[in-house]
Amino acid sequence: MASAEYNATFSGSHNHGLQAGYIAGNVETHHHYPVERRETPPRPFLSIPFGRDPDFVDRGTILNQLHHRCAAPGSRTALVGLGGVGKSQLAIEHIYQTNERSPETWIFWVHASNAARFEQGYRDIADTVKLFGRRDPKANIFKLVHDWLRDSKNGKWFLVLDNVDNVHFFLNRPDNIQGQAGYENGGADRPLREYLPQSSNGSILITSRSREAALELVDQRDIIVVETMVQTDALALFEKKLGKKVNRQDIIELAAALEFIPLAIVQAAAYISDPDRGCSVRQYLDEFQKSDRKKIRLLDRGKGQFRRDWEAENSVLMTWQISFDSIRQSRRSAADLLSLMSFFDRQGIPEALLRDESRQGNAEPSDGDDTSDSESPSSVSDEFNDDILILRRYSLISVNIDRITFNMHSLVQLATRRWLEVNGELERWKRQYIRNLNAEFPTGEYENWAQYQVLYPHAKSAARQRPQERDPLLEWAAVLYKAAWYDWQKGNGAEGEKLSVKAMEARKKHLGPEHGDTLNSMQMVGLIYLLEGQWMEAEKLF
């Protein structure tokens, strides 16, 4: 008996799946995509996911620089700076102003933090301009968009690549990136950055936390560094966000405490403006200044910023911790250096206390790595300089004119210590910091006066970083004792008392009241009491 043949045809673009009963033979299914028809492209318009910020504060000459550089045909410009300093906000304002001046210009926004988001951004462009061929599953969407942008007949365009912090995927071909469009297309044989067109009818603006990443896409001369705000701009932003009259001196103090960082200011303003909290600027400032714990609690609240990508953190602490993770992934030694630097006073961090010979006792060995003993001093120095360069390119540290000391924002230090705590490494790096400082801190001799002046601020910082374990705690007490001696010699009784009492109490607890170091600490406390005129308190210690 001849077998029956059945044919079924389904039309429409939303059908999927097929069910059948008992089948004794072979089954063939054929899926035919509907024929794509050419569409009439729309007129040029602004296509970005964010509205204009009515509270935007024009920051000096940055926008003028942007307008000047981006106006050049075929230009590529990068805004580079610490996370939270307002790079994306500057880009948003710039493109709205560009749209006002040149409404016939296409304006596109692509979030480029990873390959998937970059691909989606190019797909959005293809949909926006109704690009023919975009629905073909085998199409190389990167080439389609690239070729459309290069064609001057399509008019002028401006493209923003936001959050280009990890540039590595730009250096690969689409067929080497899992899940990318065009992997079956034989023409997709170029790195993704080659699909960023260089043409006279369009310009590209990049935002990045990493100068190193930006330099893969633009020339050094085309980088605009975005710093924290100056005081007048920070006050203007605060006043706009609060939307009410407040004590100006309180705002000045709070803006300074937040180190004029725009994202931190927006966070604080959102907290203060919350009607359920009933919090004044002064109350927020007083709470903020109580302790590191209070700072973390307030700065971990990511509210008030509506013009950031959904993947971007609104909390300034979390924003920076993403940078820390990226550095650790790409260069562990640079992340270790950042960890150590986070405990020092924010200014004048000495290179001598950071070098590998100071850090190596606490380093985690790599599997099978037995080459450290054979490293030459020059190679160790090169490694250190490379680590410093990475941190500078992320705008996490700066170098002083003397070239041997460094500065950090205190809030970046706080965020780093919080990151270490979350990763279970806080005590490890606190211990290393105290060990390095104690080894470098001189004994009480006048010929060491200059060294005391350099290290004293870092000893005061150490006083706020009490370790938990016995041995580091005794080293901590030694640092505080030496710093108290310096205070006594300078006649600074108030600070010397705080430091010497902490050292004495730690030594009493862990060494006992009769130990020589404990007795020395008691004597130092007594001398400072005499300096302050506290005769009866001093008599108890002699």
UniProtKB/TrEMBL annotation:
Q: Which residues form a coiled coil?
A: none
Q: Where is this region: Disordered?
A: 354-381
Q: Which residues form the Fungal death-pathway protein SesB domain?
A: 3-29
One Pfam match? DUF7779
Instruction: Write the signal peptide boundaries.
Output: none
Which residue intervals define the domain DUF7779 in the entry? 329-420
Q: Which PANTHER family match?
A: AAA+ ATPASE DOMAIN-CONTAINING PROTEIN-RELATED, ATP/GTP-BINDING PROTEIN-RELATED
This one is known as Kinesin light chain
Q: Which organism is it from?
A: Aspergillus sclerotialis
